[in-house]
DNA sequence: GATCTAACATACAGTCTGTATGTCACGGGA
DNA sequence: TCCCGTGACATACAGACTGTATGTTAGATC
C-alpha cells in the first residue's frame, strides 16, 4: 500500500506543530513562547510535540529549516524567471539576486527566526550548518561563476560569501526596523549595490 | 564626605555581579546560565541581584554595555596611538580601524554576548541602542570625514555604517569559528579591505 | 542614641520544560 | 476474524528556574 491514511495524519500533526510554532516564534520570539501555546494552537497536546521532536530547540530547528527553505525557493524561482526573461551575465545576475533577497526576506518570520533567534538558540554550529545549506551554497556558486568569468576580483570565496551574506542580512534588518521602510529599502539597496560594484575588476 | 566606604562596598557587589555574569554568559550563553550560578560565583545571594537589577535581562544589559564599552575603548586607544605615530588621511584611518576591530573583538566574550545573544535577548530595539552608542557613532563619524574629504563616494551614512558594522561582525565571527583561525583572519581581513577599497572614489 | 533607610538575605509562589507512564487505534499474521 | 504488537499520541509528574514578597541588619542622619 502506498501512503496510508494514518501516515497522512501523522505528517499533518507534525506540519501543524511546525506551522503553529513558526507563527509564535516569529511573533514573540523563541524564549517568550511556551510549548503549551504552540500545541494549543496546533490543536494537539504536548505529548505530540515531544513525540515528534526531541525538545523545543529541535522544533525550532525544523521551523527555521522551513522558513529558510521557503525563502531560498522563492529566491531561486525569482532568479530563474529573471534569467529566462533576460539572460544576463553572471555579474548582473548576482546584482539582481542581491536586490531580490532584500525583497524576499523582508518578511518578519525570516528576520526574527533565522537572523535574530537562530544564532542564539542553536549556537553558531547548528546555525551555520543550516545557513550553509540554504544560503551560502547558492551565493558561493554565483560568486565562483563571476570570478571565473573575470568580472569580479579573485578573493577567497568562503569568507567573501559569509561577509556578503551578513551584509544582506543587516540590510534586511535595517530596512525592517526603520521608521520609513521605503526610504530605508532604497538606501540599503543603494549601499549594497555600491559595495558590489566596488568588487568589480577595476 | 566624599566616597564613603559603604558606597564602595555597594559598587563592589554590583561589579562582582556584572563580572560573574559576564564570565558565565560568555561561556554558556544567556539562556543556559542560571541566576544561582551567577550569585554563587559573585559570593552574594539572589537578593542582591534583584536589588541591583530589575531582572535577568537588565543584568545582561549591564554586562553587554561593559563588554562593548571595553571594546570601544580598546579600539579608540588603539587608533589614537596609531594616529599619533603616523598622521594618516581619514581613509587610511578607517582602513586601519577596521583591521583593529577584527583583532580587538576576537575575544569570545564580545562575540557571544554582543553579537549572538545581544539581539535575541534584548530585542532589536534595546540592542540597537547600545550598538548605536558604542559602535555606530564612531564608525559614522569616520565615514563622514572620509566622505567630506572626497575619499569615498557619497552614500547615505546611516545604512552604510550599519552594513559595514555587520560586515565586521561577521568577519569576526567567521574568524572565531574557523578551523584555522590564522588563515581565516588573514582572508577575512583581505576581503574587508577589498570591500572598503571598492568604496573609494573611482 | 533613636530612627530611618538602603542593602542585602530568605522564603515562597508560579511557570515552564522534559520525562515517565498510560491508552488507543491501526496493521499484520495465524 | 481474532489477537497482538507497535506507533502515535494524551496525561501526570518531578525538577528547575525566575521573580516577588517579606524579613533583617548595618550604616547614615538628626
TrEMBL record, chains A, B:
Origin superkingdom: Bacteria
Domain called HTH tetR-type: residue spans: 11-71
PROSITE patterns from the UniProt entry: HTH_TETR_2
InterPro entries noted in UniProt: Homeodomain-like_sf, HTH-type_TetR-like_transc_reg, HTH_TetR, Rv0078-like_C, Tet_transcr_reg_TetR-rel_C_sf
Protein name as it appears in the record: TetR/AcrR family transcriptional regulator
Alphabetical keyword list: DNA-binding, Transcription, Transcription regulation
Residue ranges of DNA binding: 34-53
Amino acid at each position: 500500500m502506498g501512503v496510508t491514511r494514518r501516515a497522512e495524519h501523522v505528517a499533518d500533526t507534525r506540519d501543524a506543530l511546525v506551522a503553529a510554532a513558526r507563527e509564535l516564534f516569529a511573533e514573540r520570539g523563541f524564549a517568550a513562547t511556551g510549548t503549551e501555546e504552540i500545541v494549543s494552537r496546533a490543536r494537539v497536546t504536548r505529548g505530540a510535540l515531544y513525540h515528534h521532536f526531541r525538545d523545543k530547540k529541535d522544533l525550532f530547528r525544523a521551523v527555521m529549516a522551513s522558513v529558510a527553505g521557503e525563502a531560498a525557493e522563492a529566491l531561486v524561482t525569482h532568479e530563474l524567471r529573471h534569467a529566462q526573461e533576460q539572460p544576463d551575465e553572471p555579474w548582473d545576475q548576482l546584482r539582481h539576486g542581491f536586490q531580490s533577497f532584500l525583497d524576499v526576506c523582508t518578511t518578519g518570520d525570516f528576520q526574527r527566526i533565522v537572523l535574530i533567534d537562530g544564532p542564539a538558540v542553536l549556537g553558531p554550529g547548528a546555525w551555520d550548518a543550516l545557513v550553509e545549506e540554504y544560503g551560502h551554497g547558492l551565493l558561493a556558486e554565483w560568486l565562483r561563476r563571476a570570478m571565473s568569468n573575470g568580472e569580479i576580483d579573485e578573493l577567497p570565496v568562503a569568507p567573501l560569501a559569509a561577509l556578503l551574506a551578513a551584509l544582506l542580512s543587516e540590510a534586511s534588518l535595517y530596512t525592517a526596523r526603520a521608521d520609513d521602510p521605503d526610504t530605508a529599502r532604497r538606501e540599503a539597496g543603494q549601499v549594497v549595490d555600491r559595495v558590489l560594484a566596488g568588487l568589480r575588476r577595476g
